[in-house]
Amino acid sequence: MDVRCHQSAMSPLILQGEPYVEIAEQPKQRGMRFRYKCEGRSAGSIPGEHSTDNSRTYPSIQIMNYVGRGRVLITLVTKSEPFKPHPHDLVGKDCREGFYEADFGPDRRVLCFQNLGIQCVRRREVKEAILFRIQRCLNPFNVPQEQLLQIEDYDLNVVRLCFQVFLPDEHGTFTRALPPVISNPIYDNRAPNTAELKICRINKNTGSVKGGDEIFLLCDKVQKDDIEVRFFTHNWEAKGSFSQADVHRQVAIVFRTPAYCQTNISEPMTVKMQLRRPSDQEVSEPMEFRYLPDERVNCFHEKRKRTAEVFQKLMQDWVPGANRSDRLPVVPVVSRQFATARIKTEPLSSFPCPQQAPPDLSQHHPNSTVSQNHHIFFPPAPQQTAVGPPTTVASSWHRVAPAVNTYGPGPQTMDVRPSYNMNGHGTYGN
User: Where exactly are the structural domains of the chain?
Assistant: First the structure.
């Protein structure tokens, strides 16, 4: 017998009321694999629901309102009511013919079972296993035989533990049966539709706040038509976008992230991401995912913020009646000491006279005294010869010479304009 017991903190006195069985620790529902007999290896031990890698726990029960000897019987039953005996077998120490049976003494208040494993049968072996249980009267809930033989109703991927305790009668025989109790369902970790959901690895855990980032997720076996990727916070939830074709061999999912509920965030937002199975609402352990703000939106807001600040400063600087000493200069003022210095004057004789005399204004203004006093105001410069009336090419354009028209009767006049030969000298002619 491998039943480990612990002393209860309660008094060893018999309590008032009818004895009953209470499950002290439930078995862990997921993470255990059912083994076939042909695998030739141990089926392992069913862990407790509080079991961790550093601290192992196991399913346990407690007999309430009773101190004394007794016998415990553990069998496997189906998940759904009516709870029928299951075709799978319990294996391990103190197990025989598919069930566990052991006696306990009066000093044992909590019974812990650490060597219970599950050995599964094939579909074609289900009927034989059920007939064997009928012969051994392993039917704790007295389900009719015709229901027990409905083989197609058995789910081979999930079982429950059924605990039965028998107390001794006045003759010392264990005939006084307490009401049976059943545990939480235990799922086969090998079956995709009941296996424990687990995210093994992702290629990145950050993405744009607008969504649409492609994520590669590695996981344990999942059903392509019964899985979803859930993003959530305490007040928001969204699902990743993918199709059944994006689920690769039940162990990888390629999906696109959903958009966050607020796309105008200025700082990264951390949310939770997990796998969820819609059929039974089973979820995996969540992991963190960070939404990053949109850089374009941030640049736009920063630019608007800077523009508003500059405009506000300008408005404050040019408020009428404000103290000018409190105003900030819009354009930096640089003091120049030479701006107030006296400008140096130069004598008139240092500027040479023009090489060409000014035009004779007396032709246009006969009465003007400027031409008469020209020599007074503009004396000739030293070593400068007098220049006569100017002769320019433009003045020659208006000279008209008589010509004989050989093409028609009567004398004609011709406008003679200058032309230029190859040497650059002007000539006249037509």
Answer: 3-187, 199-294
